[in-house]
Amino acid sequence: MANGPAGLPLADFIGALRAELRTAALGKDPELQFNVGPVTVEFTLMTHHEGGGKAGIRFWVVEAGASATAGKESTQKVTLALTPVTASGEPWQVADEVAERPS
User: Fold this and answer.
1) Using CA atoms, how far apart are residues 45 and 63, in angstroms rounded to an integer?
2) How many CB atoms lie within 10 A of CB 24?
3) d(CA 44, CA 66)
4) DSSP state of 27
5) How far apart are CA 44 and CA 5, in angstroms?
6) How many Å apart are CA 66 and CA 76, to the nearest integer?
7) In 3D, which of 23, 22, 30 has the Cα closest to residue 84?
8) In whole angstroms, what is the distance from residue 19 CA to residue 84 CA?
């Protein structure tokens, strides 16, 4: 594929998840806080094998039901269980509500 697979690079997907958790934490109410337990995320991952000068494998999160159409691509259903913690290893806490829906 000349422009690469349609989808979101895996690093961007994980970054967006981090941003959502960060937004929830910023609005926390000191009277009511929640520890975040394991976050389970399920998605379809496409691997794209590149040759030539940029040899390697790239990972893209694609829309559910997507299928590979080129010989150098394949899709897999992936489930990740992540337990968010702070930089010091403490449990991550989020608010009971946020002022506005993140964009």
Assistant:
1) 9
2) 19
3) 8
4) T
5) 13
6) 10
7) 22
8) 12
Contacts with 40 (C-beta within 8 Å, 6 or more apart), sequence order: 79, 80, 81, 82
- 18-64 per-position pLDDT tens digit: 888 888 777 767 677 778 888 888 888 887 666 666 556 677 787 65
Interatomic CA distance for residues 24 and 100, integer angstroms: 10
Pick from 77, 84, 80: which is nearest to 18 by CA? Answer: 84
Please name which of 80, 75, 102 lies closest in space to residue 7, comparing C-alpha atoms.
75
Alpha carbon distance, N-terminus to C-terminus of the chain: 30
pTM of structure:
0.60
Six-digit token string for 9: 């690079």
- Assign 64 to helix, strand or coil: coil
